[in-house]
Design goal:
The complex is a heterodimer of chains A (113) and B (111). Chain A is mainly β and 113 residues long. Chain A has no helices and 11 strands. In chain A, strands 2, 4, 5, 6, 9, 10 and 11 form a 7-stranded mixed β-sheet that branches. The radius of gyration of chain A is 13 Å and the shape is globular. Chain B is globular and about 40 Å long. At the A-B interface, β5, β9 and β10 of A face β5 of B.
Amino acid sequence: DGGITQSPKYLFRKEGQNVTLSCEQNLNHDAMYWYRQDPGQGLRLIYYSQIVNDFQKGDIAEGYSVSREKKESFPLTVTSAQKNPTAFYLCASRMDRGQGGYTFGSGTRLTVV
Amino acid sequence: QQQVKQSPQSLIVQKGGISIINCAYENTAFDYFPWYQQFPGKGPALLIAIRPDVSEKKEGRFTISFNKSAKQFSLHIMDSQPGDSATYFCAASIGASKIIFGSGTRLSIRP
């Protein structure tokens, strides 16, 4: 079955550490996205990529970094510069040609301890 | 211009009732309007979507009503069930560009 896999499901980070969240898709989708969701809040766009080796900042990119070396993979690194990283992180993908909605992963809950 | 405004923020409906969530937009170039359903601890899932050339789309108990002249669209959930309790997001996009999400509505269905 095609889909998006996010790992790990839960992640704990000590202050000052960088952590990387994994996102892999086997849908052959061109575009991939990272969103942050705080409790009871909406979705805020962190970064997105519409093609391999290219990505753009979203609305809240500070303190985050990404790479897109393969079409299937779009990892997100939460750096120590992100002052309030505790949140639910969602990865999504979309076929770039034509139209259609996003397919979301099941999310990674990051907690700073 | 790129915003999608969603209301209400939260909604409580009795079992069997009709749940209605409203969204409004400004950018007339939007040409795709999806709705997403999210359960706690899960990623959002595409529920139903509409394009502006139709005024209504129905899938089971879920209906999107679209008013192009008013730049508004709404989700109606008929015969609402406790299993429909979730957060709902409306959204809009232009072509293959990134999707703009509303702020979400937390729906609770009372048994």
